[in-house]
Input
Amino acid sequence: MEILVCVKRVPDTAENEISVNSAGNDIDRGDLVYSVNEWDNYAVEEAIQIVDRVGGNMTVVAVGDDESEEVLRREMAMGANDGLLLKDSAFEGSDGKGTASILKAAVQKGKYDLILTGAQAEAGAAQVGGMLAAMLDYPYASLVNKVEVIDDKKLKVGREIEGGNQEINEIELPCVLSIQTGINEPRYVGIRGIRKVASVEIPVMGASDLGLGADTVGTAGAKVKRVDYFVPEMGAGAEMLEGSTEEIIDKLVELLKAKGGLK
Amino acid sequence: MAQVFAYITHKGGVADDSALELAAAAKKLGADAVTAVVTGTGGGLDAVCNAMAASYKEVWKIDNAAMAYPNAEVVRKALVNILPGDCLLLLPHDTFGIDLGPGLSIKMNSAYVSDVVGIDGLEGATLKVVRQEFGGAASTHMTVDTAAGAVVTFRPGSFAADESKSAGGQVVDKSGDAGDLTAKRKYLETVAAEVGDVDITKSDVLVSVGRGIEEQDNLQIVFDLAEAMKADVSCSRPIVDAKWLEKSRQVGTSGLTVKPKVYMALGISGAFQHVGGLKGNPFIIAINKNPKAPIFQVADVGIEANILEFIPELTEKIKSL
Output
């Protein structure tokens, strides 16, 4: 099976406290630690496991800048055979549809049976996989938490739906799946693994290589645009307990007693 | 303005809570006449359509056996055939809306904006909405060019349901316009969530742990605290993803809905999917080392502390009582 996994380099929310910058036009990016989008990492692991079971080849692709190469290399150290970077200044400011258009053009340069994305990335839109599938006229399933290969024509996939239930579907290949976290246990990538792929060449394609007009992608092609970042005004918020740890614990114990938290 | 439609999700002949939330969102857009679209088949579909006529001026019913279960690919085909291409379509941002919305916007050549939590207004064809990024740590205003139509998904619970029920609407049968509904994806069955050794939906006091616990071995301090408090242990999604605790202990929209009296959120950032699983207005105590964690916005009482240091001290104190 030929598998393409779409990955994105994002600020690691487990490693950073995200805050809005003083101009209100971005988050503070000064000391941010970046990594591969968590959902994408599960997608890469799933692709590796599928290739292990039924054979084939997997490629990781990212739309991004030079620094995205790091993320591609990390996923290649995990087990992806090839990497592909889609980079062009014309891509900057793309909305979901723009990103899906770029990926669609890349998909059509190859021959893939299965395309995986993460269910969502840092902006929480959960949109690129479904758009890409519709552009390609491939069937799609989102929030996938189980993949079983039936034969070279179809898969059985589980979708995570409300209440921890799982919706089972049969889906024809080629198709696009968006992968939910928890579907597997992504393998650890050691420094040695990364060193092994450090000198592997990663091809780069831009708008003209992909046959994309500059007005269809990037800011020029975007119907959806971010105006600003802000910190929302929410209700009163929590009453913060202050003082020494001992004082805080005393107050907390009194509250727990009052609210029925201690029996 | 363009015609506004709200897609109604339903189950067992009853509309989802999102049905009246979308009616409220449509009002906020300034739409005077909003049409509900309901797909499905048989008596359950009719019951939902009739109920929706109280809240929507028009209810478009699309009855087809192929939509007995809401398969997003089948529903997409029917909607593309039936809806005007430049309409505004409102969907809930739930597991169905996420499945349907992105591809539908491509097939309708519409703009797409998802997981909207607020509407700032519609000026001409420019829709201004509020979203959140980074799990709720930052909010954004977005503009959407709706000139050629738009598909917009709304976060469940972001708009108070429009309970006015004074639309006096009528049901219009559009089933004949659904067209070819053959699909490359076929629904087989739904597998129910596994039942665990502890039923956290029945617990009065929950000690709930999140990513802030850092390592599996550290979970013991949470169980020690729960034992001292005679409480049960629940958790947020990352703990289940890491396979440190079973899915039956997960609180949230993709896990279980709980209704304790007291809920202690330990090292839980408080993404909306997690908070969405808390019902019955529990007294929420949040302990987190990040003072900007969204959980402090919904908690009653907050403590800024590293749970790895704080919890053992709290446990000792409770044991000594």
